[in-house]
Amino acid sequence: MLDLGDLGLDEGAHLLIKRALARDRSAIVTGSAPSLAIDVPAWCRVRGHACERRADSFVITAGADRWRHAERAGGSAPIANPPARWGLAARGALVEAGAPELDLPLAVWASEAERLYAQAAAAQWDPATAIPWDAPIEHPDEVEDAVVQIMTYLIENETAALLVPVRFLGRLHPHFREVMQLLAIQAADEARHIEVFTRRARLRRRELGLSTASGQASLATLFDEREFAVAAMLLAVLGEGSFLSLLWFIRDHAPDDCTREVARLAAQDEARHVAFGLAHIAHELAADPSLRGRLAAAIERRHTALAQTAGLNEEVFDALLLLAAGGWEPSALRRGHAAVVALSREMDDGRRLRLGRLGFVADDAARLSALHTRNFM
Ligand SMILES: [Fe+2]
Ligand SMILES: [Fe+2]
Question: Which one of 122, 152, 159, 348 is most buried, by most CB atoms within 10 A?
């Protein structure tokens, strides 16, 4: 027996009926709200419940339970192969049967994803306030030209670093929530890098620098990879890993505070991107050691594809040299040249170290690092 009092179905009385049916599958409902005689049968009809009118009550019997074939979308931790029928449901939700299936087949996981996402969320910075845009710029014009060329090159590379993972993100099963969040915030990081490098380039110049066919050819090959772990190896472990050294180089040789800060803050973010690439590949390798061969093959394939291109654009190399030299005296240029040579050695050291952490033996790590694109990314 359920007495609704004078509460109408348009005032929330249906909650009481639902609660009663959930408990006992049937209920005898009475009440004094004037619209009850119309509302109760209509409400039951829509939900497939039987409703029998008695003198001053309704006998309601619950229809087929629409949740009978519902399925729990995993638990708190992800499973390896979540089915498409879970759709967009939150991991752990009870999913009604018959929900639409989406074409989101990609499974990407690393147990560090949650921690790296939290770290990324806490480390977001505001380009408007984090960068000293008004810091004095007192270096020679040609050094400013070098800064503009380096920024132009960085923007192009950041654009690839944004678009390549986002294409995977668009196909990722939402079951891998932490990875989805991490890739989204990583895209926001790259968006910020593009913004600050563009603003820095335009501080004193109306036009940006050069974009070369070989630089673009190198980045274009990143779009060819279909396997996330392989793309992560080329882009994150080797490319963004090398970029870490490059950004530290720019930070250390920056001719002004603004350039120093954009490089320093971008490098902070890049370190997380590299960490996730490493974590994901390590996770995949643990389950499938044959991946190591596919990773090596992808590095070799990319090297072959780029063998005929010019490598790092000469203007970028010269701009880095001039940045480190800071002026035109022969002794300064010698110092600048030595610094750029040391930079490429440091990039190589970093790549070999990371390949070693993924279980490549020293000889393989050295060989594969040497095959990495001369364009750095
Ligand atoms: Fe970036
Ligand atoms: Fe990045």
Answer: 152
